[in-house]
Amino acid sequence: MSSFLCAAMVLYFPLPGGLNLGNLEQIHSNGFDNEFPDQEDPHFHESEYQSLSGTSEYQNIVLLDTNRFGKVLVIDGKMQSAGKDEFIYHECLVHPVLIFCESPKSVFIMGGGEGSTAREVLKHNGVEKVVKCDIDRVIVDFCRMHLTANQEAFSDGRLHCIINDANNEKFDIIFGDLADPLDGGPCNQLYTKSFYEQVIKTKLNDSGIFVTQAGPAGVLSHKEVFSPIYNTIKQVFKYEIAYTTHVPSYADSCGWVLVTRH
What we know:
The structure is a single chain. The protein has two domains: 2-27 and 84-260, Vaccinia Virus protein VP39 (Rossmann fold, 3-Layer(aba) Sandwich); 47-82, Roll (Spermidine Synthase, Chain: A, domain 2), CATH 2.30.140.10. It is 23% helix and 32% strand. It contains seven helices and twelve strands. The protein has an eight-stranded mixed beta sheet. Strand 11 and strand 12 (252-260) form a beta hairpin. The radius of gyration is 17 Å and the shape is globular. The active site is at residue 177. One of its GO terms (molecular function) is thermospermine synthase activity. InterPro entries: PABS, SAM-dependent_MTases_sf, Spermi_synthase, Spermidine_synt_N, Spermidine_synt_N_sf.
């Protein structure tokens, strides 16, 4: 966890306001407008070649080899992670809650198709069971095959990968590692107040903790999805805290929201 300890996290409390996910049409993406980024885009990283690509029922998948950030996973034209610094995002998502939660045994991951969130969770020997649920088998199999850093996690006996078939178990910790709630995206309904009330709260144990990624969280970008997610989730849970850190390959800060039932 040494790299996690070196990643500076900033506690962040979004400004109060009426922003919430009741009006998803107000949320717009500032990601790539095209399937492949233009070289003038600040997120573009010089690529030696396009290594692999694929298409599923839900999304287009591209794995690029870049000079600066290694393998870069791009889904529907939006960069998801880069090999050289994805650990910053995934360690900040996973380790604070696993350290904070007392002796967690069971973990549920929504999304996280590439396997990096599961990889970080499985570093905690006390965790006995990890269930990872994704809607897209194609991207799970694609990442299992081509992202070598996560192949050990995929073969760990504690990890159970299911596709679009969440069960009625309760868990000590639930992670939301989903795509941002953007117009027309497959995950919009998974960031709503009703989803938090009717699904997340019912799947948490009494002392359970839920933490979700909350998109770009910079000074200029936090109003797009970060503040709406925070303002939506705090209507459902009694205690919440938001935190951010900078991820170089995104050229921006990323945000997370952690909540408890009691």
